[in-house]
Amino acid sequence: MTAAASLDLLQGTLDLLVLKALSWGSLHGYEVATWIGEHSDLAFLVEEGALYPALHRLERRGWVESEWGLSENNRKAKYYRLTVKGRAQLKAEVSLWERYVSAVGKVLRTAER
Amino acid sequence: MTRFRRLFRLSGQEPGAEEDVAAEFEAHIQHKTEALVRSGTAPDEARREAERRFGTLARYAAECGVIDSAERKERRRREWWAGALQDVRLGGRALLRAPGFTITAVLVLGLGIGLNATVFSVLRSVVLKPLSYPEPQELIKVYSSNPKEGWPVFSVSPADFYDWSKDAKSFRAMVAWNSSEAAATGIGPAEQVPVIAVTSGFQAVSGVAPIVGRGFATPEFDPGAPLVAIISHDTWIGRFGRDAAVLGKRWVLDGESYEIIGVMPEGFEFPVGKTSAWIPFHTPKDYASQRGGHFLDAAGRLARGATIESATAELVALSGRIAKEFPKSSANWTVALRPLHEDVVEDARPTLILLMTGVGLLLILACANVANLVLVRAIGRSGEVALRSALGAGQGRLLWHGASEVLVLVGIGAVAAIPVAVFGASMIRRFAPDGVPRIETVRLDAPALLFTLGVTALAALLVSLAPARRIARIDLRTALSGGSGRSVGTRRGLHRWLVALETAVALALLAVAGVLVKSKMRLEQVNPGFDPTSTLTASVSLPDKTYGKSEQIVQFQNELLRRLRAVNGVQSAALVFGLPLTGFGYSSSFTIDSTPAPENVSQSAQLRLASTDYFTTQRIPIVAGRTFTTEDHRGGRPAVVISAAAAKKFFPDGRFLGRFIRVSAQPGPDDDRPQGYVIGVVGDVRERGLDKEPRAIIYGNTELVPEGYLTIVLRTTVRPLSLVTEVRKAVLAMDPDIPVSEVHTMDEVVRQASASQRFRAGVMGFFALLAAALAGLGVYGVISHIVAQRTREMGLRRALGATDSQVVGEVVRAGMRDALLGAACGIGGGWLIARSLSKLLYQVRPADPAVLGLSTALFLGVAFAACWIPARRATRADPIIVLRGQ
Question: Which of B27, B30, B55 sits opposite A47 (nearest CB)?
Answer without folding.
Answer: B55
